[in-house]
């Protein structure tokens, strides 16, 4: 303790500085609310800046303060308290950043630290209580400890949410449990526990006799109720959750009885008292509404049902209680003797009637389904009330600081000093400067990074186009919409997912939060420049729920790759890809520096190109298992992860006769959803081609009605990524009169994209149609290193399938014309005809075969005669021996 | 190496001197003055340091910074309209506004020092320092191309 610190200021220094943190978070809350739509996940940020930042910091400070005061304990070492506070604030920043902008890992780590800090805090409180003499107020500490336990649970649930554990309904249930346990537990229990002593103090009356009993009964009901509620929501047991909430509400009521008695004795007469009282009333209202929501909705719908209640709880209850408490407590902590106390109290309560009325009117407007201008008015009222408090509090803090210095000035606070020996100022000018500088910088950064204008010149409308947009599985489909400049686009946005999403465009249009199955229509201004769109639910943008609207002719790859998912109604991309292909791809392949002449890694085995004859029988049973962690040699010396069927690229070859039935057991042994699509079969896609999740399996039964060389591939969106990553294979159905030949080979040609499958780099190259190379049977130039064998004079049949995803093939054997060509179910040329053929040309997903007879011994290259592809790896050798 | 390299070099060097000078005064000169000098002489020394730094700001830093900055923006093709566009323009605009705020804080610091308001003067000095770091942050955020 410093020498002449007054009795009121015993704990003043660190408490005051800590309260500056709370005021800072409140100011940030106002800033976030005002910045609103410019921010990623604005709604989530607003709630969490306020609750995780301001409210949690305040709870940490004040629950310890009250515990010390009530237990008449010795002040614990402030260093540890400050450490907890610092950790909590750092963790809060990590969570806010991680969820809103950064990698989820940051948010999860932050949540972990939050949980650790509150557990530490609870342990510190327990230690305080153990060491203190038994007193009248020990029961309050139990509320604080239980509240900390609730945040530990709620924080853990939050980390699970940030990690996207569980999708759809599971996610919604975890969300509901997270919100309930944090609001009712961490905030609710703390507030109730504090009010036992704070409320009589604010009213300047005695604590009612029955307080202790009410406290014990209340806590005994509230905590088990909370456990049941949280467990019931998480485990999808509605009756349990509803019962838990009712028990909790009963506990809260029991705890409020002595408060009501106090009001009977002495009516509230200060702003602090009225704000606290109003906050408690909102708590009651929200609890009743909460009971109705939890009792009448399935657990998966609770989070959506609670949405309208949030303003009540967050602003009406938590915000108002926080403001009311600070109104009452700040003058006391600012200290400086009775005169200054009165001055500060008067300053902080200035105009409290109007502020109280404005705040609560605002809460009512926010809670009711009013038209947008009224809702904006509600925000303005609430925020104005908060802003007035922030300004007054800052004035009071600064005043206290200068008064402090005046009293300590004679100790040698020189002109540039401001840091007298005794008068450690409550808010040093340096700290004030740091805060001011940081606020200025933060404001400038916000201005710098928001891109909310519909940039570009105002366009005249030249046409109209309606596009169906679906939100599902962390994707916006289509991911790219192309339209001519000037087009008036109408987006019909439908959420087909089991969890809530919305769509917000950088040009300002946004849908409301859409529950499962809901739709909304957005009509855009005539298209000028590129417009980004994303889902504002926390974390979804980072997970890839983004889209772009591109004026046609401006599809140059820019920004980060979102998804090459060009399926859907917009007709995006493929034409452009095809056009780009011929001109740019060669340069791309050359630019990547694949060294096709390099040695293959030791132990590499080529995919066996020799095609075995069809097994006998008309029924074939096959198991195809997804392995999306296989590491394969895709080019000489280049090994990378591929997504595969059965661990190879291409997947296993299926061969049979016309009319054969294939029963494929498709097992997803991978790490994400996959599906399979056999072109050779005739089935409604809905069931057999559906995406199945890891660990699931399905049976795909098809009858091969037609002969040909057929493609099969993964049917999960975005297919570009799944096919480009290696999920394709061939089904060979022999034509009825297929002649015997000496050798049969199968070449499946595919594009090679280097890099992590599904990664940003791959996606950008996919969208631009710029593969790094081309492969026969999964390895670029593989058969240059392991040539295919034949003998002079032998008839060789080369089956070929073009897997793409973007390019086909012009298959050619150097030095040996084809005398037979069979393409897509028909002979274009038969042996014995006068004509010959030089190329078997296949568009992406087509298949066929060509036959030839090697005239003499030698090395005959087999290539895709689109020469840049040949030079990019679509190249192999026939090593032909003497007859 | 073109003349534009020299212009950019002058811009960066001048900024480094300004931010570095503030840091040196706050982190090196001030603590030492507090320790080694009594109140009277410290006030005199700090006033002199402040006056000299203010002179440097007005005579060298501001002209160089504004001149080279305007030239660089002109070369870049920045227009008033483009300042509002997201991306380069918006970041540059934010940087300029923050720079003006920093200059205002520095000016207030000088005024408060002269007017015998040490707390305000110190707060403004730190505000200017932190804000300058913010300007550098925004400068680093400007896309390179």
Describe the protein's architecture and organization:
The complex is a heterodimer of chains A (883) and B (145). Chain A folds into three domains: 14-398, Cytochrome c oxidase-like, subunit I domain (Cytochrome C Oxidase, Chain A, Up-down Bundle); 463-553 and 561-572, Immunoglobulin-like, CATH 2.60.40.420; 619-881, Cupredoxins -  blue copper proteins (Immunoglobulin-like, Sandwich). Helix content of chain A is 46%, strand content 19%. Chain A has 21 helices and 27 strands. Mean pLDDT of chain A is 82; it is low at 1-11, 409-426, 452-458 and 554-592. Chain B is mostly helical and 145 residues long. Chain B has one domain (3-141). Chain B is built from four helices and no strands. The model of chain B has no long low-confidence stretch (mean pLDDT 87). Chains A and B meet through helix 14 and helix 15 of A and helix 1, helix 2, helix 3 and helix 4 of B. Chain B: The chain crosses the membrane at residues 12-33, 53-75, 87-108, 120-142. Chain B: Keywords: Membrane, Transmembrane, Transmembrane helix. Chain B: This is Copper resistance protein D domain-containing protein.
Tell me the layout of helices and strands:
The complex is a heterodimer of chains A (883) and B (145).
Chain A: H1 12-35, H2 42-71, H3 78-100, H4 104-131, H5 138-162, H6 169-203, H7 211-234, H8 238-265, H9 271-296, H10 299-306, H11 310-334, H12 337-348, H13 352-367, H14 372-408, H15 429-449, E1 463-472, E2 475-477, E3 480-483, E4 487-495, E5 504-505, E6 519-523, E7 531-534, E8 546-551, H16 574-592, E9 619-635, E10 638-645, E11 654-657, E12 661-667, E13 677-678, H17 685-688, E14 697-703, E15 708-713, H18 719-724, E16 728-734, E17 743-752, H19 760-767, E18 773-776, H20 782-785, E19 788-791, E20 795-804, E21 809-813, E22 820-823, E23 826-829, E24 840-842, E25 847-853, E26 858-864, H21 867-871, E27 875-881
Parallel strand pairs in A: 1-4, 3-8, 9-12, 11-16, 17-20, 19-27
Antiparallel strand pairs in A: 1-2, 4-6, 5-7, 7-8, 9-10, 12-14, 13-15, 15-16, 17-18, 20-25, 21-24, 21-26, 22-23, 22-25, 26-27
Helix pairs in contact in A: 1-2, 1-14, 2-3, 2-4, 2-5, 2-6, 2-11, 3-4, 4-5, 5-6, 5-7, 6-7, 6-8, 6-9, 6-10, 6-11, 7-8, 8-9, 9-11, 9-13, 11-12, 11-13, 11-14, 13-14
Chain B: H1 3-36, H2 39-76, H3 88-114, H4 118-141
Helix pairs in contact in B: 1-2, 1-4, 3-4
